[in-house]
Amino acid sequence: MEDHYGHRISYLRISVTDRCNERCTYCMPDEEQTWLERTEILTEEEILRVVHAGVSLGISKIRVTGGEPLTRPGVVDLMGKLGAIPQIQNLGFSTNGTLLSRKLKSGVTNAQGLYDAGVRALNLSLDSLDPEVYRESTSRDLLPQFLEGLEAAQEAGFENIRLNCVLMRNRNEHELWSLVEFAAERGCLIRFVELMPVSSREVLTEENFLPAIEARRIIEFRHGELKPLPDYRTNGPASYFELESGQKIGFISAMTNLHFCENCDKLRLTAEGKLRPCLGSHLEFDMRKVLRDSSTTDADLQQFFRDVVDRKPKEHDFRENYQPQRRMIAIGG
User: Fold this and answer.
1) Cα gap 23→151, rounded to integer Å
2) How far apart are CA 154 and CA 158, in angstroms?
3) Is this structure's pTM higher than 0.90?
4) pLDDT tens digits for 158-171?
5) Which residues of the chain form beta strands (DSSP E)?
6) 177 — phi, psi (to 5°)?
7) Cα end-to-end distance, the chain, whole Å
């Protein structure tokens, strides 16, 4: 599949739930959230059918997200079924990390279950190492559980662990170097992510928004110039730099990088089955309705994919006075 701008679409991010055990201010700004009914969420069988249709058209990278995906019962088994699909070359999982050390019925941790299922790319959210700041950002006191989860992931064998830190002025800019050191000590790749107005435009105020270039200068002021790594790539749109020590640091600059969308190869499937061609666009198309129509064939699903890709915009709308309509937790991280 290729859109009108030459993007070869090979990456599908799948949200398996809108539920989460944390309440991050930029994802779900308040405690009041209308959760989807269980019948509204795509079943495991429906997700697998969508994926099979996608891989037949060139999808080779899958990342499962939430909400917090580990709050969905059976998600580890689902990952095993996804990992068994030969065309999937890269199977990733995004989590806040706080449930990774929890034991499955088999006795192994969630982290070990994910690794055994074939997951190799693991993204963990970590915005602060300060217990008070962590609690303010997530409305939960779960930093110890995060640390246990990271340890469980490394004990399970994960080597490709990426720590995603959302940049928040007046909250975590004083911790940037501590977070870099923390990642280096544990052999993880750290990426600093600009706030995006997905759930609320308030995140873009001067009081809240910390641009990636400023974060980079904060690090450089103390530890010297960062070396650009223009040829270093992961599955996302991060720009990477390197310290003299060899530690790599990524910056995801959706708001300030005017070339952010140039190499986009991604579609998003929400937990209730809306296929979205772009996170920063209100365009979404109801795949659940098609899936639950008994007359729908695999060819119909393939055509649905093609039609959505045909509507993929050139770039996101976040800089165009974007007005959020859904919480990030309802779209998928």
Assistant:
1) 23
2) 5
3) yes
4) 998 999 999 999 99
5) 11-15, 61-65, 90-95, 121-125, 160-166, 189-193, 227-228, 239-242, 248-252, 266-269, 274-276, 285-286
6) -70, -40
7) 23
